[in-house]
Write a structure and sequence with these properties.
single chain; alpha/beta; Rossmann fold; four-stranded mixed β-sheet; 6 helices; 13 strands; 25% helix; 33% strand; globular
Length: 215
C-alpha cells in the first residue's frame, strides 16, 4: 500500500508521515510533490498549516491541481488543518481566496463569531478540545465521541446553510460551534491535527489506512 503525503512546504509533513508509518508499518509512506507518485498512491493525505494563500499558490506552482483533483474523485483522501479548509468554497484569509469547492461553505476568522464577552478567548485556538461526532463514519471507528484532539488555527469552517450540514461529521466549540470534521464519499477532512492527538489521533489515522473510501 502506498500513501502519498502531499508536500506543499507547509505543516508537520514529517510528523504526519511518521504517524502513518507507526499505525501502518506495512505501508510505503512518501512525502512528495511529484504528480506521478501522487497519482500512483492508494491513499492521499493533504496536510497544511499556516496561510491558505501560500498553500493554494504552491499547489499551482508545483502543478499538482490535476493529480489532486483526480485523487479527490476516486481514492481515499484525508485533509488536515489547512488541507481541510482548502476544500471549501471560500476562505477570507489573505484578502479572500477561492478554495477547491468540494464542500459548500466558507472559512472565516474566529473574531466574526466571538461576542464581546468572548473576546478573552485567545486566537489562534490552540490546544486540546473536544470533538462531538455528528454522524458515524469509518474514520471514527474505536474513537469515542467527545474525544479530545489538538488544534492550532485562527480560521474556522462553516457550512453554507442547513442543507449542507449532512457533510459535517464532527463539531467543536470555541465560543462558536465550528466544523471539526467534514466528509463526502471518499474524502474525509479534519481541522485538528491527528498526528499530534495521541492515541485518538493515531486511531483515526489507522482507520484511514484501512478505509476503502466507502461510507
Amino acid at each position: 500500500m502506498q500513501i502519498a503525503v502531499i508536500d506543499l512546504g507547509m505543516g508537520n509533513l514529517r510528523s504526519v508521515a511518521q504517524a502513518l508509518t507507526t499505525v501502518a508499518p506495512q505501508a510505503s509512506v512518501r512525502v512528495t510533490a511529484d504528480a506521478t507518485e501522487i497519482g500512483a498512491a492508494d491513499r492521499v493525505v493533504l496536510p497544511g498549516q499556516g496561510a491558505i494563500g501560500s498553500w493554494l499558490d504552491t499547489l499551482v506552482e508545483r502543478e499538482l491541481q490535476a493529480c489532486l483533483n483526480d485523487a479527490l474523485q476516486d481514492k481515499p483522501v484525508l485533509g488536515i488543518c489547512v488541507g481541510m479548509q482548502a476544500l471549501f468554497d471560500h476562505c477570507e484569509e489573505d484578502g479572500g481566496r477561492s478554495g477547491l469547492g468540494l464542500f459548500a461553505g466558507s472559512v472565516q476568522h474566529f473574531s466574526h463569531f466571538h461576542t464581546a464577552a468572548q473576546r478573552s478567548l485567545k486566537v489562534p485556538h490552540m490546544g486540546w478540545n473536544q470533538v462531538a461526532q455528528i454522524h458515524p463514519h469509518p474514520l471514527w471507528h474505536n474513537v469515542d465521541d467527545n474525544s479530545h484532539f489538538y488544534f492550532v488555527h485562527s480560521y474556522c469552517a462553516n457550512a453554507a446553510d442547513d442543507a449542507d450540514l449532512g457533510m459535517v461529521y464532527g463539531s467543536c466549540d470555541y465560543g462558536h460551534q465550528f466544523i471539526a470534521a467534514v466528509g463526502h464519499e471518499n474524502v474525509f477532512a479534519v481541522q485538528f491535527h491527528p498526528e499530534k492527538s495521541h492515541s485518538d489521533g493515531l486511531q483515526l489515522l489507522k482507520n484511514f489506512t484501512v478505509w476503502n473510501g466507502v461510507v
